[in-house]
Amino acid sequence: MDNRKYLPLIIITAIVLIVLLTISNSIIYKVKSGERAVIFNTLTGELDKSNVIGPGFHGKVPWSDAYIYDVTENQIEETMDVLDKNGLNINVDITVRFHPVYDSIGEIYETFRLDYIRRLVIPEVRSTVRQVMGRYTAEEIYSTKRPEVEGSIKTETDAILGAPGNNIEMRALLIRSIKLPEQIRLAIENKLTQEQEALAYQFRLDKEKSEAERKRIAAEGEAVANKIINSSLTDELLKMRGIEATIDISTSPNSKVIVIGSGKEGLPLILGGN
Description:
Blueprint: H1 7-27, E1 28-31, E2 35-41, E3 46-47, E4 56-59, E5 64-70, E6 74-83, E7 89-100, H2 105-112, H3 116-133, H4 138-144, H5 146-161, E8 168-179, H6 182-232, H7 235-250, E9 258-262, E10 268-271
Helix pairs in contact: 3-5
Transmembrane segments: 6-28
Subcellular location: Membrane
Domain Band: 26-192
C-alpha cells in the first residue's frame, strides 16, 4: 500500500498543530484562584473595565492582552522617621494589610497599571502617618494616646485608599513599634512613674479623708442620739423602768428574791439569787 498519497495531509496537519501550539498562549489564558483579569484590545486601544474575569481557563482573540491581578491580601511593612507636634524626631514601624477591590481591577489598571502598591499604597500610607503623628506630641504618641493615634491613621488611610479611583480595601493597620531618642524616652517614662505615684498617694489621701468623714458623721449621730435619750430620761420614766426590771427578776425561775423595805427612789430592795 502506497502511503505517499497521505504525506501532504500529514504535513498540513503537522503545520496546523504547530501553528495552534504557537498561538495557543495568545488565545487561551488561565486565571488562578485569588486572581482577576481584564482584557485590553490592542487594535482599538480600549480596556474592558466593566468585564472583570474570574478564575478558570478563558479564551481571547490574539490581538488582545489579558492583564492578571493578584487580589489576595497584601502586606507592607514600613519603617519611617516622622516629626511630632513639637518637631521631635520619632522612628515608627507600620504594618498595613490590604487588597484591591475585586470588581474594580480595570480602574486600578487604568490608573496605576500593575504597580498600584508602589504608586498608590506606600506613598499614601507614609503621607498619612506623617500628617497624623504631626498632630500629637511624642508623649501622647508613645504612651497616653497611642490607640487614638493608631485609630486616626487607620481611618484616614482607609478613606484615601478606598476613595473612587483608588479602590483599595484596607484590612488592618498596626503600629509595631515607636522609638524615641533615649533621653526623651527616659524623661517620659519617669514622668509617667511620678504621675502613677501621685495618683496612688491621692487615692490613699482620699480614702483617709472618707474614713475621717465617716467617723465624724458616726460620732455626730451618736451624740445626737445620746442627747435625745438624756432629754427623755425623766424621774417617772426611770421609776417605771426600775419596777419593770424588778418584776422580771422576781419572776425568773433561777432567782430567789427577798424584798426587804424599799430602796432609793422608792424601789424595792432585791437580795439573793442563784
